[in-house]
Amino acid sequence: MLGWQTMLYKPALGTCPPQQLAVVDEQDGYRGQAFMALKQFQGSAKRPLHEFLIGFGILLPPADLCISTNMEFKKYFEELTTLEPSGFNAFLLDSIGHIKIKWIDNLSCHLEFDERANTMFLFRYPSFCTSCGQLAKAEKPSRATIHAGASPASSSRQWACEEDITKMLQETLLSYRLLFAQDKQARKLYRRLAPFAGSPHKCQDQLLHSLCGRKSFRSAWVPSDQDTYDLRRDFPILRSRLVVLHRTLSASKPRGWRELWRDKRDSAGWFTFWIVLIFGGVAITLSALQVLLQIIQIAIKR
User: Fold this and answer.
1) Residue 210 and residue 232: Cα distance in Å, rounded?
2) Range 198-206, long-range pairs (CB < 8 A, 24+ positions)
3) What secondary structure does DSSP assign to 4-72, as a single string?
4) Distance (Å, rounded) from C-alpha 88 to C-alpha 238?
5) How far is CA 76 from CA 162, 182, 185, in A?
6) C-alpha pair distances (Å), 191 with each of 121, 208, 211, 248
7) In this structure, are residues 179 and 230 in contact, taking their beta carbons and an 8 Å threshold?
8) Residue range 185-197: average pLDDT?
């Protein structure tokens, strides 16, 4: 029951010995920050909830967590401070980075990236985030089950506190706007993705369609769209995952003329390139025509 109440994992019932607890592998073998293990001994269920959950991995990360030991990545993590939807969105990740998208039911894996399979994982039930967040922010606040997984104030900063969990829920909602809604081509891409393919209508989350497919969206609990997002302010919990995706996209180079046309990450450079190409092409064409006319004139005189 706990897995479904928190949407942090899906129990894999009947797949292991009775003395073990197992969760479903929704990431096709990928082991990232969220799930470092898929099994643990049943006795761990007697521990405090946050200690039980950390037996699988960092399912609820705190703000500004970077667990990578790669010094180049750590430097990139510190230097990347902002994101703009015009230069970082699902359309560019798909068309330039050739990154595949897999929709999952685990909130804990949202925005994780499997470099081996070149696949990004996205949580597909944002209504869960709004319902839990609204409980926490109500006039008479009450805790959703997911907030029960928060670490005590005295614990180490390797696990989320209650405030971090509430922020994570909001960031998840805002990430759909960043990835899809604020770019026309990204909205078109979302409509082609069919995140609920094969699911009955009653199991589809209509809020996902609104967050990803509508240019304008207003909600008291979803943060407003920004032209530029400050990672420390707007995405402190999901920051490291966005940095991984941005670094992958930055390392991707356009292949062919179509991708060059689509690649508008550097708008000034994009306009400069095409203006030079067009005017240069026109100049070369005119020069060639001039030479041709001169040859014709010489031929006629002879």
Assistant:
1) 26
2) 205/124, 205/125, 205/126, 205/127, 206/127
3) HHHTS--B-TTSS-TTEEEB--TTTT---SS-S-SEEEGGGGGS-HHHHHTTT--SS--TT------HH
4) 15
5) 28, 25, 28
6) 17, 11, 12, 24
7) no
8) 95
Give the pLDDT confidence score for residue 289 in this predicted structure.
78
Q: How confident is the model at residue 120 (pLDDT cuts 50, 70, 90)?
A: very high
Tokens of 127: 């209504």
DSSP assignment string, 148-170: GGPPPTTS-TTS--HHHHHHHHH
DSSP-assigned states of every residue in 92-127: HHHHTS--EEEEES-GGGTT-EETTTTEEEEE--HH
Taking CA atoms, 70 is separated from 77, 142, 194, 246, in Å, by 10, 40, 36, 16
Residue 154's pLDDT is what?
56
User: Which residue type, as a one-letter code, is found at position 162?
Assistant: E
* Contact of 186 with 179, CB cutoff 8 Å: yes
Cα–Cα dist 241/112, whole Å? 6
Mean pLDDT of 204-230: 94
Residues 268, 266: Cα–Cα separation, whole Å: 6
- Which token pair is 246? 């941005």
Closest CA to 103 of 95, 112, 94: 112
Please name the residue that has the structure tokens 């269920």. 45
